[in-house]
Design goal:
The protein contains 18 helices and 17 strands. It has about 525 residues and is of the alpha/beta class.
Length: about 525
């Protein structure tokens, strides 16, 4: 008589059921932060990875692990992150909040202590169920309970009890099929016909996608697109729109069509708050349906109506003429500066991204500098620009960029553009073990030794000079070359535009850092002179 197959231990059985559910949900990348309580998951994931069912990543820092999974998911891979109990879980919170506000279906699978230890002060035990708050759906899973459908953003909290180590390897792994290709929500849907008469601009925020560009082209309207809008292409993007919104062109705008999540520009927010401007807005991804501006009419997020008519071509030509003038003045102003400017760094990075390339841009000044320097790329070149604009935090950007590059191995080139404080905030992202998947990624760090974003804000007023450096400028004097050496990450330091062009043209392959030294003491004055440009 053939003996009955031995059943795995309860925690091992639960872990294998969770991994099976992850595979069924299309997850093919899982990031593991090591721990004892999540050992059943780690063993099950190892077995699945050895069978070729998924790609395994390990990170010693849970916050970096969470953002690595976020970057993988943002760029098309379905990813999950798992960690042990206690404060390890809390370190996933920033990535989960960014995912929630950006509409990214990130999965967090956290290990917890058994129910009998809750509320007892047991080691590494806290209240983990719902720890990420009401914005992140959660499910608390106990031994023998059915694993829920892992669809969308979710925190799955799994209670594991001893024994945590399986008696034998997982041999009867499930058969899985390649997950279906995710289709954009706007495909196959159409906007209502819009009256072409009012003087209209199309504002494209983060993740607006091609429909914003196609609408602008079909209706003949200026396109005010942020770098990560996914549509700063074609003939209608206005490079210097932030500067032109301070001119009489903005005063004559009668209607704004908003797609995506606009976050970069105070002039855009001022335009959207005007009582004399009609605002039409398509819904944005994320947990909050409301927008931070008045919406006069809700639109379906979709492609332009095939019968959409064009408005007065003179309106678009006025914007184009003004943009050419201000762009030329801006380029001359920057070229005349005695020192390399962060704007020129952003322009050089943008120019270095070839067709089929990937650019991940950090928050604060880098994304805004890029916004002023990119005139627009050709349609169909399939460049992808990503940014964490859900909450626009500086945390986790290095790991996000690594994840995004790993999710898109066919990119012709992958570059990240970040500030020095952002880079330091996720320096742990450079800590990759010898067996980890490593991307071909050049991280360009604009190093002005502190937080220059505040120089252009109210805090940077000379009236606050006595306290600005200590509580806003925050100089750090970190030797980035030494920091990179500690993780065996190749490092270049450049201080001129020709040196930067050479570094960008000569990637070493793998993960590398190009540090670009720029000034911070003149940032407020430089920004003021740029804002003063007029057609």
């Amino acid at each position: 008589m053939t003996p009955a197959p031995q059943q795995p231990e309860p925690s091992t059985a639960t872990a294998r059921a969770v991994v099976t559910a992850l595979l069924d949900a299309g997850v093919r990348d899982v990031v593991v932060a090591p721990g004892s309580r999540n050992a059943p998951l780690s063993f099950a994931l190892w077995d699945a990875a050895q069978a070729g069912l998924l790609r395994l990543h390990t990170r010693v820092d849970e916050r970096s692990a969470g953002f690595l999974a976020l970057g993988l998911t943002k760029n098309g891979a379905r990813a999950a992150v798992t960690c042990t109990s206690g404060t390890a879980v809390a370190n996933l919170h920033p990535a989960m909040l960014e995912a929630a506000h950006a509409g990214v279906p990130l999965l967090a699978v956290t290990a917890d202590r058994p129910a009998r230890l809750r509320g007892t002060g047991a080691n590494q035990t806290t209240d983990q169920a719902g720890v990420f708050g009401p914005l992140v759906p959660h499910h608390d899973l106990g031994p023998g309970e059915e694993v829920p459908l892992l669809d969308g953003l979710l925190h799955l909290n799994v209670r594991f009890d001893d024994p945590l180590v399986p008696a034998r390897a997982w041999s009867d792994l499930p058969a899985v099929e390649d997950p279906p290709r995710v289709q954009h929500a706007w495909r196959g849907r159409h906007l209502d016909l819009l009256d072409p008469g009012p003087r209209t601009v199309v504002v494209a925020g983060d993740d607006a996608g091609p429909p914003a560009r196609v609408l602008a082209e079909r209706a003949g309207w200026p396109l005010l697109a942020e770098p990560s809008a996914g549509c700063r292409t074609g003939t209608h993007p206005v490079r210097t729109y932030r500067l032109l919104l301070a001119t009489d062109l903005a005063d004559r705008v009668e209607r704004v069509v908003v797609m995506g999540h606009p976050t970069l520009s105070r002039p855009v927010q001022a335009l959207l708050s005007r009582e004399d401007v009609e605002v039409l807005s398509a819904p944005t991804p994320g947990v909050w349906a409301a927008r931070p501006f008045r919406v006069d009419r809700e639109l379906v997020w979709g492609e332009p109506h095939p019968e959409q008519q064009a408005g007065d071509p003179a309106w678009l030509e006025e914007w184009r003429t003004a943009d050419r003038s201000v762009s030329a003045q801006l380029d001359r102003l920057l070229a005349d500066e005695p020192d390399l400017t962060p704007h020129e760094v952003a322009g050089a990075v943008a120019a270095a991204v070839p067709p089929g390339g990937l650019l991940v841009v950090g928050p604060s000044n880098p994304v805004r500098d890029l916004d002023l320097m990119v005139a627009g790329w050709a349609v169909g070149d399939r460049r992808k620009v990503l940014a964490n604009r859900g909450l626009a935090g500086i945390d986790g950007v290095v790991s996000t960029a690594i994840g995004a590059a790993l999710a898109r191995p066919w990119s012709s080139r992958a570059i990240a553009l970040v500030g020095d404080v952002t880079f330091l905030h996720d320096a742990n992202g450079l800590v990759l073990g010898p067996d980890e998947p490593r991307p071909d990624l050049t991280i360009v760090v604009v190093n002005d030794d502190g937080g220059s974003i505040f120089a252009g804000l109210e805090q940077g007023d000379p009236a606050h000079a006595d306290r600005f450096e200590r509580v806003f400028g925050t100089p750090h004097h970190v030797d980035l070359a030494a920091l990179c050496a500690a993780t065996r990450t190749p490092h270049w330091r450049v201080e001129s535009l020709p040196e930067l062009h050479q570094a960008l043209a000569s990637p070493n392959g793998g993960l590398e850092v190009v540090e670009v030294r720029v000034r911070r003491d003149n940032r407020r004055d430089l920004d003021a002179r740029i804002r003063a440009l007029r057609p």
